[in-house]
Amino acid sequence: MIITELMTRSDNFTDEQVSVSMAQSYIDEAIAIINTELNLHLPFVDLTSSYSALNDSWQIRLFLPYLNYGVKMNDTSLTEAQFYKNAFDYALEALRISVSTAVPEEYQGSDNGDGTYNTDGIGGAYVMDTSGAIPNPGWFANSDGGEW
């Protein structure tokens, strides 16, 4: 999808006119949030070509609400802005759940800083050893930590 298509959709939703530079700024900010939250390296938008790192459905679901959020924040319509921000946050969580299938493998992984990317996996679960944890007896404990 080309950025101007998202702009037209945003204009229809917000009843405002958004400039190309404003649209690019907000969409790039959404991409930066997605990249940092989900350990991805999606490219920023290009004004002249179609964005191919995410399919059109994900672009509409993620970029459009964030663009609308920016438009409404710029217009100081805070209640409406919060509605669009919530829609973006909800879509971001949905992408987090299906990132391994929704995002092409070439964009998954973290930036190593040298032009290469670590693709050892996205996120992950960490096991914490709680064997030495202090038990919490709650109301049923005396002052020395023992039970009554």
Overview of the structural elements:
This protein starts with a helix and ends in a 30-residue tail after the last strand. About 50% of the residues lie in helices and about 5% in strands. The chain has one domain. It has helices at about 5-15, 20-40, 55-75, 80-100; strands at about 110, 115-120. Helix 1 crosses helix 3 (about 55-75) and helix 2 (about 20-40) packs across helix 3 (about 55-75). It is an all-alpha fold. It has a two-stranded antiparallel ribbon. It is built from four helices and two strands.
Secondary structure blueprint with pairings:
Blueprint: H1 3-14, H2 20-38, H3 56-74, H4 78-102, E1 110-111, E2 117-118
Antiparallel strand pairs: 1-2
The largest β sheet comes out as: 2 strands, antiparallel
Low-pLDDT stretches: 119-125
Beta-strand proportion: under 5%
Number of helices: 4
Distance between the termini: 67 Å
Write down the Rg.
21 Å
Helix coverage percent of residues?
Answer: 40-55%
Shape designation? flat
Strand order of the largest sheet: 1-2
**SSE string:** HHHHEE
Keywords:
mainly alpha, 2 strands, flat
Summarize the structure.
By secondary structure, the protein is an all-alpha fold. About 50% of the residues lie in helices and about 5% in strands.
